[in-house]
């Protein structure tokens, strides 16, 4: 296990279709800024940000990747060495949700991850600020997809109104810590089946839907 001290650096890669809000999520988290007219990313960009959890400071090196297919060869070389992967879609874009499996597979292939089943993936449904009429992916669909794909952590965020953005990155680090400790003890089980019908505190899963943090 890596020492969890002041200098722990974690590489976090954000993947998902073009336009789902990856750059906006990173910028909201790092600079608390939102750009209504964010440009498509070409290749990758990264920013560092410290986060404190249980008295420990972690430096997140956050890699924002280009979601458009034509930039695939520019983004995939940067997957290696990742500690955490945020699989991102937009709740008003069903196609971006259907593409989650493609993103997961692309990541596993190019990141050359040894423990496929236990890698810390977090599923992030962005743009939760949109109206019910515009919503194309329900919370139940998110829950089902995660359960079917063995992913224990999901969250809906809004980079626009800052809802759950800090929480998503915090959840990612907490999951990484859990995965590291399980790897240490050889306890590989995701027994945290996601059930969004349970009230918070009742469920052992780490799913955070619709809560507003800031
Ligand atoms: N309503 C709403 N719009 C958002 C949100 N996050 C991002 N957007 C908008 O969605 C558009 C795309 O955002 P980006 O962050 O550039 O998307 P991206 O996933 O980085 O796109 P690529 O760089 O092409 O991969 C921009 O017009 C943003 O203003 C959000 O939480 N809510």
Automatic annotation (TrEMBL):
Highest taxon in the source lineage: Eukaryota
EC number: 3.6.5.2
UniProt enzyme class: hydrolase
PROSITE patterns linked to this entry: RAB, RAS, RHO
The keyword GTP-binding is annotated on this UniProt entry: yes
GO biological process terms, semicolon-separated: protein transport; retrograde transport, endosome to Golgi
Catalytic activity: GTP + H2O = GDP + phosphate + H(+)
Subcellular location: Cell membrane; Cytoplasmic vesicle, Phagosome membrane
Cofactor needs: Mg(2+)
Topology of this chain in the membrane: Lipid-anchor
GO molecular function annotation: G protein activity; GTP binding
A Pfam family hit: Ras
PANTHER family, A to Z: RAB FAMILY, RE17845P
Record-stated family: Belongs to the small GTPase superfamily. Rab family.
Protein name, UniProt field: small monomeric GTPase
């Amino acid at each position: 296990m890596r020492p969890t001290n002041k200098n722990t650096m974690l590489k976090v890669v954000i993947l998902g279709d073009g336009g789902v809000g990856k750059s906006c999520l990173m910028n909201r988290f790092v600079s608390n800024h939102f750009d209504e007219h964010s440009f498509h990313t070409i290749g990758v960009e990264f920013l560092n940000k410290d986060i404190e959890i249980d008295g420990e400071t972690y430096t997140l090196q956050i890699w924002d990747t280009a979601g458009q297919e034509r930039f695939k060869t520019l983004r995939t070389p940067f997957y290696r060495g990742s500690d955490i992967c945020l699989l991102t879609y937009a709740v008003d874009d069903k196609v971006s949700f259907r593409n989650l499996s493609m993103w997961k597979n692309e990541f596993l292939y190019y990141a050359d991850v040894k423990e496929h089943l236990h890698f810390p993936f977090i599923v992030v449904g962005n743009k939760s600020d949109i109206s019910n009429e515009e919503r194309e992916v329900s919370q139940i669909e998110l829950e089902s997809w995660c359960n079917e794909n063995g992913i224990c952590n999901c969250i809906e965020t809004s980079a626009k109104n800052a809802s759950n953005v800090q929480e998503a990155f915090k959840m990612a680090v907490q999951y990484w810590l859990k995965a590291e400790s399980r790897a240490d003890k050889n306890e590989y089980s995701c027994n945290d089946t996601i059930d969004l019908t349970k009230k918070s505190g009742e469920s052992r899963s780490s799913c955070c839907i619709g809560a507003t943090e800031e």
